[in-house]
Amino acid sequence: MDPYQASKETEKICRLAPVIPVLVVHDSDIAKPLAEALISGGLPVLEVTLRTQSALKVISEMAKVPGGVVGAGTITKSIDVKDAINAGANFAVSPGSTDDILEACAQQNLPILPGAATSTEIMRLFDLGYSVQKFFPAEAIGGQAALKAIGGPLPNVKFCPTGGITINNAKGYLDLENILCVGGSWVAPQHLIENKDWKSITDLARTASKIAF
Ligand code: 3PG
After folding, report:
1. Which helix (DSSP H) or strand (DSSP E) does residue 158 occupy?
2. Spacing, Cα 46 to ligand 1 middle (Å)
3. Residue 209 located in a structural domain
4. In what order do the strands lie in the sheet with 158-161?
């Protein structure tokens, strides 16, 4: 999948909901109820970070849940792309963008939300054809003010910012013209996952799903 086509696919995914839950899941047994809790709250796009031993199993379990679009996050090397595809991931998310990762996604037809943090990184990705990018770590690198400023010279790049985004600042991001959606872990906090408090997670998802209005 060439970068232009990949960006079209990524944009479609980013437009499905205002928030992509960023998930760190240690126990694959809870993958299904966690996905169901988020999807039923109105957040169908799920990013499972490859930061736990169980992450690939979690992706394969979540990929079976109707109504979900499951991505593999924290892609940091090209082998992660193959693993993510084998697990059933629909898309990839990377904190930064190496040639190896971009090439692996292109060769293996996996849409990617490639990470960028500076104007140079954003311009390089855009030159390659990636018009939808992850802005990371958003709050630490200037947040809304930075994205607004970047939108001046680079209005055709759209972003999913992540890193430090919460219920309190998400709407400010979503109000910017160059933002398609935001990513964040606040909709599935560890203590609620550990307590299997699916109702509270659905409530957080429901609030997040309506945040843009
Ligand atoms: C991450 O990769 O950890 C995401 O950016 C989520 O960040 P958050 O925990 O600050 O929402």
Report:
1. strand 158-161
2. 13
3. no
4. 115-116, 132-135, 158-161
Segment 2-17, tens digit of pLDDT? 999 999 999 999 999 9
Q: Is the CB of 162 under 6 A from ligand 1?
A: yes
Q: Is the pTM of this model over 0.85?
A: yes
- Tell whether ligand 1 has an atom less than 6 A from the beta carbon of residue 22: yes
DSSP helix/strand/coil, 159? strand
The enclosing domain of 64 has a CATH number of 3.20.20.70
For residue 30, the 8-state DSSP code is: G
Where in the sequence is the domain holding 18, given as residue range(s)? 3-203
Distance 22 CA to ligand 1 centre (A): 6
The 10s digit of each residue's pLDDT in 189-210 is 999 999 999 999 999 999 999 9
